[in-house]
Each structure stands twice: as C-alpha cells, then as structure tokens.
Design brief:
By secondary structure, the protein is of the alpha/beta class. It has a single domain, classed as Rossmann fold, CATH 3.40.50. Helix content is about 45%, strand content about 10%. It contains 11 helices and 5 strands, in the order βαβααβαβααβααααα. Strands 2-3-1-4-5 form a 5-stranded parallel beta sheet, sandwiched between helices. The chain starts with a strand and ends with a helix.
C-alpha cells in the first residue's frame, strides 16, 4: 500500500466555479477540502466556513503561519520563463523545493485531518494555479489527482469583469492564455486528469460527481445532505459559496445566462471567439 499523501488538485481559471466544486467533492467523508492552500499565509482574521476567524478556528489555529517558510511568489522573470518553456514543451524543475516548507505544511495538515477523521483518504487543494501544480508534481511524497475545471467564456469573463483589477480585454487575455497554458502543461507532463465543465455541474451536479467518483473510486450518494451536515474549515475561495456553506447548503444554482456587465460589442467579440 502506498504511503503517499493523496491530494486532489483543482486546476483552472479564476472565478470558474472551483469553490463550489471543492465543496461538492468534499461532501464525501473521505475527502477533506482545505480550500486554496496557496493563500495559507494570508490574513489571520479571514473568516472560516466553521463560523470562526482563521486564528480562532479549531483546525487552523494549530498552524502558525510564522512557522512555515513557504515558497515566495514568482518574480516576473520566473513567471515568463515558466510560461515560455511550457509553451515550447520544455519542463521546468523546481530546484528550490527543499529550501521551503510547502511539503511540510501539506504533511502537517494531512496528519491533523487524519487525527480527527481516520477514514480520510484524500485532501483537496483548490488553488487552481499552474505554478502551484508544477510544485506539487515534483513532490515524490504526494500522489496527485487533477481535476481541470472550465467555465464558459461568457460567464467567466462577466464574473471576472466584476472585479476592479479586470477590464474586458485583460479578462479575455487571462481566460484564453490560462486555458492554453493548462492544456499544454497537462499534456507536457502526461498528467491524467478529469475534465469538468462548470455549466454541467450547475445542470446536473450528481452526474458530474459520479464522473469524478468513477475516476477516484469514490461515491457521492446524499451529497446534498452531507453538505448540510458536515463542518468544513475553508478560509479561501468564493465568498458567496462559502457563506452558503456556513448558513446551510441549499442546492446548486443554475449558471447565469445573461451578462448585463458586458456591452454589445464585447458580446460580439466573444461570439467570434467561442
């Protein structure tokens, strides 16, 4: 039997429904959803879905952010080097993995979760970041299972445009480039993965969970009831989804079909590109 940590990683673009998907997959009692671990060292006063702030949460209070020297954010040069090499089909090895505590953090989180949930088989990281995926791929101590989520171009860009840092063209560029990069990366590293469309999750969550379950050898019977009754400790991701989990899961909402924040010209551009 493998003693590797089994980690489910959700890859994709920002605002693509990864928070919802992480909770749906985490409805199985053998999966522990840890949210977006790339944000572990952010604010201590972040609210947790258990109802407490991160520093007072019964789970996260055991992990002092100051104890972990995590890999710093990529410099602009490192980022573009990664992008260019991936697009050219060249693998990049993280030579500084042993200098930082990213693996130690994952191992400590796993041990803490296992202590409270002996039936746990997987932990789940919904960070989406391709840079983080590249780091995880190179940890021999981790057995990686990738779910690649994609949201339709209209809804994803409309959602991105609601945020001040995204105008239409930046959102469009980010959407197209990230998906191109993810596909190239998965093919380059020959990573087995499960493709999930956010719209399909909204239309029939049970069907998509069964698809995931078939690959991961998990069952998702009574997922809605499990989501209502299970306590999660997630401090990152979509605020609205996290709030719904805290108040009590009421079902998956339909995907939006109108985009009032997109102009007629912007919709025509997307028509041409979709």
């Amino acid at each position: 039997m493998s003693d590797k940590i089994k980690l489910i990683y959700i890859a994709g673009n920002s605002f693509s429904g990864s928070t919802l998907l992480s909770f749906l997959v985490g409805s199985n009692p053998t999966v522990e959803n840890l949210g977006e671990l790339k944000f572990f060292d952010k604010k201590k006063d972040k609210n947790c879905t258990c109802g407490q702030t991160k520093i007072n949460c019964e789970f996260w209070k055991h992990f002092d952010q100051g104890e972990y020297n995590l890999t710093p954010k990529l410099t602009l040069i490192e980022k573009y080097t990664f992008l260019i090499k991936t697009l050219l089909g060249l693998k990049i090895k993280n030579t500084n993995n042993n200098q930082f505590d990213d693996l130690k953090l994952i191992q400590d989180l796993y041990k803490e979760k296992l202590a409270t949930n002996p039936d746990m088989t997987f932990i789940l990281d919904s960070s989406k970041s391709i840079w983080r995926l590249n780091q995880l791929v190179q940890f021999e101590e981790i057995e990686l299972y990738v779910i690649y989520i994609k949201r339709g171009i209209y809804a994803n860009i409309a959602s991105m445009k609601k945020r001040p840092r995204f105008n239409f063209f930046r959102a469009l560029y980010t959407y197209k480039f990230k998906h191109l990069l993810i596909k190239k990366y998965l093919k380059l590293h020959k990573l087995s993965h499960i493709n999930i469309e956010h719209e399909d999750v909204c239309a029939d969550a049970q069907k998509e969970l069964d698809k995931i379950g078939k690959q991961l050898k998990l069952t998702f019977e009574n997922y809605e009831e499990n989501l209502k009754n299970r306590k999660f400790h997630v401090t990152s991701g979509n605020y609205g989804t996290n709030k719904q989990i805290l108040k009590g899961f009421e079902g998956v909402n339909n995907e939006v079909s109108t985009y009032p924040n997109l102009s007629k010209l912007q919709l025509k551009i997307l028509d041409l590109l979709s």
